[in-house]
Amino acid sequence: MNELFAVDGSPLAPESLRMLEYLQKRAAEMNTAAIRARIAAAAHDLEEVVATVSVADARLRPFVGKWTIAEVVDHMAQTNIRGAEELRHLAAGRRPPLPPVYEALRSGAGQWAPWDLLVEELRAANRAMLEAIEGARDEPSPALVPTVRTVVVALRKVQDGKEEPQIFFAELNWKEYALLQRLHLLDHRRQIRQLQAALASA
After folding, report:
1. CATH superfamily placement of domain 31-143+175-201
2. For the segment 3-34, what is each residue's pLDDT rounded down to a tens digit?
3. Is the pTM of this model over 0.90?
4. What angle do CA 58, 64, 69 make, to 5 degrees?
5. Which of 9, 33, 124, 146 has a CA-to-CA distance to 161 between 20 and 30 Å?
6. Residue 154 forms beta bridges with which residues?
7. 164-170, Cβ contacts within 8 angstroms, sequence gap of 24 or more
8. For the segment 123-144, what is each residue's pLDDT rounded down to a tens digit?
9. Would you kindly state where each structural domain of the chain is located, as residue ranges?
């Protein structure tokens, strides 16, 4: 693997390198059906957590400067529908056009749209992602598979045991990219649970 750098010019942290190694290893091991099942399970788990959020809590902001649950759900819907579009290109053997899906993609809807609409948009985006890989093939030669330029965010340990995100670009094939979407679903499920816990203790 050639040396990669974060967007700030720093070398990739061990956590970032481990994420790339995980994606490459699991993508090589898993077939299309297995990857789709893992994404479906992660999407279901996220939707189950979102279903427990009340309208009253959705736009409360327990952490100053951080997203509300409604903004997280909007982010996931906006990101997943773009991710589905890129997966459709990759599954058809095409490199998706730029720009990439940036890490903090949101619309303004998280601040005003009805909560039930935001939830339905998330579910629809998740369905679109699963449908996008239904026709994907288990390619015997990874060298022939198109890649997508992807923004990756990995949490790394810094001083005092705290964590901060490291952002970098990576070229991923469709399996690696799909598995990254699964990690994204799991990360934001965890974020919503943390927001719920903070609201409950306030």
Report:
1. dinb family like domain (1.20.120.450)
2. 689 999 999 999 999 999 999 999 999 999 99
3. yes
4. 20
5. 9
6. 166
7. 165/103, 166/6, 166/10, 166/12, 166/13, 166/15, 166/16, 167/6, 167/7, 167/8, 167/103, 168/4, 168/5, 168/6, 168/7, 168/12, 168/16, 169/7, 169/100, 170/4, 170/20
8. 999 999 999 998 787 765 555 6
9. 31-143+175-201
What the block records as the tokens of 17 is 């390198």
| Count of CA atoms in the C-beta half-sphere (13 A) of 163 | 9
Output the six-digit token pair for 61.
């902001």
**Token digits for 101?**
């899906």
